[in-house]
UniProtKB/TrEMBL annotation:
InterPro entries: Poly_Biosynth_Transport. It is a multi-pass membrane protein. This is Flippase. Keywords: Cell membrane, Membrane, Transmembrane, Transmembrane helix. The chain crosses the membrane at residues 12-33, 45-67, 87-109, 115-138, 150-167, 173-193, 223-241, 253-275, 295-311, 331-350, 362-381, 426-454. It comes from the Bacteria. It is found in: Cell membrane. One of its GO terms (cellular component) is plasma membrane.
Amino acid sequence: MNSKIKNVFQNVSYSVLANGINTLVSMVLVFIVPKALGVREYSYWQLYTFYVTYTGFFHFGWADGIYLKFGGKKYEELDKTYFNRQFWLLTFFEILIALVIGAVAYFGVDDSQKQIVLILTGTCCILQLPRTLLQYILQITDRIKDYAKNYMLEKIVYAVCVLSMLALGQKNFVILISADLFARLVTLVLLCIQCKDMVFRKLSCVGIGVRESGENIAIGSKLMFANIAGLLINGIVRFAIENHWNVETFGKVSLTMTMSNMLMVFISAVSVVIYPMLKQTPEERLAQMYKTIRMMLMIPVLGMLLVYYPAKVLLSGWLPQYAESLKYMALLFPMCVYESKVSLLINTYLKALRKEKMMMYINWGIVVISCIITGVVVYVLDNLTLSIASLTVILALRCNIAEIYLIRTLKISSGKTLLFENGLALIFIVSSWMIQSWFCMLIYGAAYLAYLFYNKENLRPLIEQMRDGVFRKIRRK
């Protein structure tokens, strides 16, 4: 294997390892925390994690602009004084944002528990968003190993703190949130040390830095608004569930979504590596790479749906108080298919092609549709099942529209494959919802084998390439 391919495999390995640890931590927490806390305390913890997903909005595209502007550069080529200004200005800005969030929570929210959740969310902004900037710098300059180590450490510190607190009998959601903030603080400090030539130098030319920040926000705002819209697509439904029913219902639905989203972890690991690789790839090769990456993605992701029924049976036995809500996994599991494709493939390609404006248009269009559907199924029909099913429908719509736009841009054809994959997702939902037994997995398994047979001509060269690569590596050793 040439050095470039070897580097890609190494980076993917580091990212997969980091996200594998994240998956392990998530599985441990999913099994232990809901059982230890009780429904109400767990629901407030889930509310915090839900709010934290939107903290990215509060850099207003600042970090995204840097991500787009400097993607594909080497770390040694970066102007360290420039990034020193950006880091500290962003940090000061997030302190102001946290103060505003705290004031709104204190004066505008009656529920004392929600006040605490919001104030701690503001604190998270101070720790998370400057850290995001440094993580982006490691990603775009191909320092994936350093990024992966930092990411792993955060999850390990978090898990150790949470399990220690639970073992000591501390069963309060505030303690668990504090563990999350502590893990973010530790990894922020270590990132500052890793990028010490940027962070620890005298801050100079603040006026110039403010102007540079404005330029980065102008570049990154479209991507940021696209990302925020992507979060709102399912966030609107989740917010409506919490608003229309109660925080306990929200917590139960969130547990089901957490299980469904676990399959996303390894996909996000690979997407970190793909972006800088695409930025360095000649444009005429992007279409062929798209076909290859797409096939390598969809085969395992569609296969992962087979773990649904064993996971449901296991969780229902372990968490009987959530057994009723776990039936919704049948509706939510296919989310990972569409979210994986969008995260790894579609969004990464659109960013590499600098089509973030189209990302924004598509996502905000789907947000409008999400608002309409949510208004009908939640507030008019008062139907929780339809509300949850709408999450997968909305994400499928976003994925298909975005992929059709991308394949037209790349001038390739994937129409039949697209129909087959949507059909597989539909077969999974119908069989899993209607047949509450192992037989549903036999039905989906047969459909999945038909999908593999349909794609056998595309699979053969991929298998040969992987086999040849492995044999070459063995011969070298």
